[in-house]
Specification:
Number of helices: 8
CATH class of the largest domain: Alpha Beta
Structural class: alpha/beta
CATH architecture of the largest domain: 3-Layer(aba) Sandwich
Shape: elongated
Strand content: 25-35%
Helix content: 25-40%
Largest sheet: 6 strands, mixed
Number of domains: 3
Number of strands: 17
Radius of gyration: 29 Å
Order of helices and strands: HHEEEEEEEEEEHEEHEHHEHEEEH
């Protein structure tokens, strides 16, 4: 519980003491009386917040995964556990970097009430809701008594996704993907996490994510001998914050398009934190942030990836992009590099092609995906 005095309350108390002391010392009864009056006001305000509401409050967010800009609601379920009517109070929920204040009227004994409030979702991110506190405040703002009530919740605000067409896959080692006695060992690799569905192998349950989310989460694997699209987001590239957001939307659009087509897709972020609770590709892209690195970071990351299939690299602009990634054509087919342009870039928006490779330069995700679709459709 935090201290009861607000800054205004501290100021009022000090003023009362100063007026009373000065008036008594110098014999000014008016000043002394004013000090006593302010002191009495402070006491009355303190009495207002003495009684604490005995309530249980739970928070839910529905839905807990949305696209940036979509509407989602927080809900507080309030239950008065006392035998007496509750006093009015203010519920304060921390949403990311801002506080949401909700006035809750008095409840009868055992009464319940649901309070709804919009949760800001304008920007992509992994947003923490909480802590949630119950506060009693006096009418003139001298005292505030705060009591933590419930634990934190997570809201995943996914990046915007633009309609994209999957590229035809190049190197196909085993198009049907059927098991056989001659199949090579070690071709199954982890791809992502997802919710458990009936029939899943219990051995695939990811217990750490299950404990974190409160529902069964399983590992999803892909056979790397099937045609795979590998999407690499270079979050170590030099980009402005708005340009980086556009890059994330490009990666999300391409990965989601391949996923929706039923083909295997692997998302690789050059510098990614593993312990963020993400269970899907879009969760991971909601949580991703720019990270320090060198121009070679993305190439080193690609060299560690299994070869074969389509390689898509989303990175910042660089006049030497074609030369930097040309060697990857030996391991992937085709190779597509999407370089995001900032406002001060001298590189023009364009599509440059070389055998087995394309470089798409664009300042926004919408324009980049437009160029992508024209390449995929063979019109550019």
């Amino acid at each position: 519980m935090s201290g009861p005095f607000t800054r205004t309350g501290v100021g009022a108390l000090l003023t009362a003491l100063a007026l009373y002391g000065t008036g008594s010392l110098l014999g000014y009864r008016v000043l002394a009386s004013a000090g006593v009056g302010i002191a009495m006001l402070v006491v009355l305000a303190g009495c207002w917040v003495v009684v604490r509401p005995r309530v249980a409050v739970t928070r839910t967010v529905t839905p807990d995964r949305v696209t940036a800009g979509d509407r989602t609601l927080g809900r507080l379920d309030v239950h008065n556990r006392s035998r007496f009517p509750s006093v009015p109070f203010v519920a304060v929920d921390r949403v990311g970097a801002q506080n949401v204040e909700l006035a809750v009227a008095a409840l009868s004994s055992g009464g319940r009430r649901a309070v709804h409030y919009p949760v800001p979702t304008a920007h992509r991110g992994r947003i923490t809701l909480g802590p949630l506190t119950v506060e009693r405040r006096d009418p003139i703002g001298l005292f505030r008594r705060a009591q933590p009530i419930t634990a934190d919740s997570l809201l995943w605000v996914h990046p915007r996704v633009y309609p994209a067409v999957p590229l035809p896959v190049g190197l196909i080692l085993d198009y049907e993907g059927n098991a056989s006695a001659n199949a090579r060992l070690g071709t199954v690799t982890f791809a992502s996490l997802r919710d458990y569905v009936r029939g899943d192998d219990p051995r695939r349950i990811h217990w750490r994510s299950t404990a974190r989310t409160g529902r069964l989460i399983v590992r999803e694997h892909i056979d790397t001998t099937e045609p795979t699209t590998t999407v690499v987001l270079d979050n170590t590239a030099t980009m402005s914050a708005p340009t980086f957001e556009e890059a994330v939307e490009v990666a999300a659009s391409v990965a989601r398009a391949v996923q929706n087509s039923g083909r295997p897709v692997v998302l690789h972020v050059v510098a990614e934190s593993d312990d963020d609770g993400a269970i899907s590709l879009l969760d991971r892209l909601a949580a991703v942030s720019a990270a320090p690195g060198s121009p070679s970071s993305v190439l080193e990351a690609i060299q560690r990836l299994p070869a074969g299939g389509v390689l898509v690299v989303v990175t910042g602009s660089d006049p030497g992009t074609l030369a930097r990634f040309a060697d990857q054509r030996r391991r992937f087919n085709p190779v597509v590099v999407v370089e995001m342009l900032s406002g001060d870039d001298s590189v023009p928006a364009a599509t440059r092609r070389r055998t087995g490779m394309a470089v798409l330069s664009a300042p926004t995700a919408a324009e980049a995906i437009g160029r992508w679709n024209r390449v995929a459709g063979g019109s550019e």
